[in-house]
Amino acid sequence: MGQSVSVTLPVGVAAPPLSVASTAVLGAASGLSAKIKLDRMSVYYGAFLAVAEVSLPVYAHQITAIIGPSGCGKSTLLRALNRMNDLIPRARLTGKVWLDDQDIYAPEMDVVDIRRRVGMVFQRPNPFPKSIYDNVAYGPRLYDRIPKSELDEMVERSLRRAALWDEVKDKLKQSGMALSGGQQQRLCIARAIAVEPEVILMDEPCSALDPVATLKIEELMQELETDYTIVIVTHNMQQAARVSDYTAMMMMRPDRAGQVIEFDVTTKIFTRPSDKRTEDYVTGRFG
Ligand code: ADP
Question: Does residue 2 form part of some domain?
């Protein structure tokens, strides 16, 4: 956990947006480096402003949770981090998203490479209708020509890393669809890991899982933090409090545009938030 750094932005008024300069100050204050930096990033669907002027650091090797009421733009913000919104017709972004020192929306950037570096795990486990082995090997086969022996090693390493190897090592040729929900989600994590990403985005990864499977994924996330930077969208407050190091609290303005109203160390957000609306939300008084 880093030291407390509080940023509170008003909702419904023209707040001076947090600039990259001030996010750099946040990074310096916590002694952490930002893997991703958002600078006044806005996302539109056609004329509708869904996410307004978000400036935020995503610290390297930390878990950052994005919380807030339904419809406030959490998934939209998450998808902006690996250009998944590009797949939505009429979605448009202004401002900057920096991955290390690269502007990921710059014309020369290779979208396929960005999505390899910033992987994604979705709400519903979505294994391909292929064998467990082929699910994990899918990405490496797509990106590189790898000899079979190396591929075998990569599949085993990824499944071990996703805490699934012991459960599936004797049935790698069986369909990934035949696994339990929790196992399927760990398979999807193994598939994401197999292409050696730097960042893993998770959009409500446990919402379709039972409490035991949820706990396993949460434990796994904490193990993965050593090697990866993780951003998770969750509507589960306990989950955000349990697993994340930093939390961004989002709210909708009266015009329904989503804003980050507070970003801080997770313990502070859940014990001494600066914004009354954050307190009301995390204590379950609304949302
Ligand atoms: P959250 O994840 O917080 O529930 P979303 O990011 O899914 O919020 O949605 C934010 C806003 O953007 C909502 O008003 C939603 O209706 C709108 N929205 C989301 N996806 C699309 C889309 N593909 N096309 C148009 N509007 C969308």
Answer: no
Q: Do the beta carbons of residue 62 and residue 100 sit within 8 Å?
A: no
Give me the domain span that covers residue 260: 7-282
User: Is 287 within the bounds of a domain?
Assistant: no
CATH number at residue 91: 3.40.50.300
Q: Which residue type does 223 have? A: E
Burial of 36-75, coded b for 16+ CB within 10 Å and e otherwise, reads bbbbebbbbeeeebbbbbbbbbbbbebbbbbbbeeebbbb
Query: Who wins on pLDDT, 27 or 124?
Result: 124
Q: Please, which residues bridge with residue 65 across strands?
A: 232, 247
Alpha-helical runs (H) found in 56-124: 74-80, 111-117
- The rounded Å distance from CA 49 to ligand 1 centre is 10
Would you place residue 11 in the very low, low, confident or very high pLDDT band (cuts 50, 70, 90)? very low
Ordered alpha helix ranges (H), 90-131: 111-117
Residue of 43, 44, 45 to test ligand 1 pocket, by largest number of atoms within 8 Å of CB: 45
Instruction: Please give the distance, rounded to the nearest whole angstrom, from the Cα atom of residue 230 to the centre of ligand 1.
Output: 22
Q: Domain tally for the chain?
A: 1
CA 199, CA 141: separation in Å to the nearest integer?
20
Identify the pLDDT of residue 31.
79
**pLDDT surpassing 50 at residue 20:** no
pLDDT band at 30; cut points 50, 70, 90: low
Say yes or no to pLDDT of 52 above 80.
yes
